[in-house]
């Protein structure tokens, strides 16, 4: 996970990953506002993922959509810190939505890399072994992930996750910006919101789901797998 995300609202990250927002009175704790969330820098240029993801999509996705989640998260945190129970209760859904959007996208940018560098190909080492054990093959994982993505009604995400207790891998989908939480650790996420692909792929989202595998940063995914 990026250091930018770790610095911004650390208690929020813990609350989200615990699986649910706290009651309004508890959320008013100043521990939720030790730092402002900030938009993380991308580790590559906007056009670096072409032709698989256009530079225009990446710029809008990062500078506009992710920034909206950052702004909304900070606003919700400020409302909760003010201590009014009624306003804090009203801000709770916004905290979950914008906080989840910030977490999901911060992970997502690190999931990607130019095909000319670390992007694409297949995982190796312990991650490859675990994928073979839990899915049968990498190709099966990719097909199952794309099927899960295609099955999302409306907006959401599909994640390759690791169970912290059993160590097994599986695929999990989440609606809207709900983050992966509880006993599951997110390793690889693919954004199925229209803003992630529509300018380039229009209604052909299945093409986007196929194309994005060419820019998956398996080094990052393997690092999360090993730390989980």
Automatic annotation (TrEMBL):
One of its GO terms (molecular function) is superoxide dismutase activity. Mn(2+) binds at residues 61, 105, 191, 195. Its cofactor is Mn(2+). Residues 123-222 form the Manganese/iron superoxide dismutase C-terminal domain. It is an enzyme of class 1 (oxidoreductase). InterPro entries: Fe/Mn_Superoxide_Dismutase, Mn/Fe_SOD, Mn/Fe_SOD_BS, Mn/Fe_SOD_C, Mn/Fe_SOD_N, Mn/Fe_SOD_N_sf, SOD_C_sf. Transmembrane segments: none annotated. Keywords: Antioxidant, Manganese, Metal-binding, Oxidoreductase. One of its GO terms (cellular component) is mitochondrial matrix. Residues 38-113 form the Manganese/iron superoxide dismutase N-terminal domain. Belongs to the iron/manganese superoxide dismutase family. PANTHER family: SUPEROXIDE DISMUTASE 2 (PTHR11404), SUPEROXIDE DISMUTASE [MN], MITOCHONDRIAL (PTHR11404:SF6). This is Superoxide dismutase. It comes from Coniochaeta ligniaria NRRL 30616. The lineage of its organism: Eukaryota, Fungi, Dikarya, Ascomycota, Pezizomycotina.
């Amino acid at each position: 996970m990026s250091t930018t995300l770790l610095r911004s609202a650390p208690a929020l990250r813990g609350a989200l990953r615990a699986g649910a927002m706290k009651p309004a009175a508890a959320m008013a704790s100043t521990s939720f506002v030790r730092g402002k969330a900030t938009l993380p820098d991308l580790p590559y240029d906007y056009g670096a993922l072409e032709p698989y993801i256009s530079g225009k999509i990446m710029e809008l996705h990062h500078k506009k959509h992710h920034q909206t989640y950052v702004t909304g998260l900070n606003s919700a945190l400020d409302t909760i810190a003010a201590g009014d129970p009624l306003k804090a209760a009203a801000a709770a859904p916004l905290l979950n939505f914008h906080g989840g959007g910030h977490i999901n996208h911060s992970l997502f940018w690190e999931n990607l890399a130019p095909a000319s560098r670390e992007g694409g190909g297949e995982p190796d080492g312990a991650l490859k072994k675990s994928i073979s054990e839990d899915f049968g093959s990498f190709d099966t994982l990719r097909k199952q992930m794309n099927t899960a993505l295609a099955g999302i009604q409306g907006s959401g995400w599909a994640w390759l996750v690791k169970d912290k207790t059993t160590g097994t891998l599986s695929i999990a989908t989440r609606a809207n910006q709900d983050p992966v939480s509880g006993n599951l650790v997110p390793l690889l996420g693919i954004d199925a919101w229209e803003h992630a692909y529509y300018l380039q792929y229009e209604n052909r989202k299945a093409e986007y789901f196929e194309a994005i595998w060419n820019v998956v940063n398996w080094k990052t995914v393997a690092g999360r797998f090993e730390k989980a």
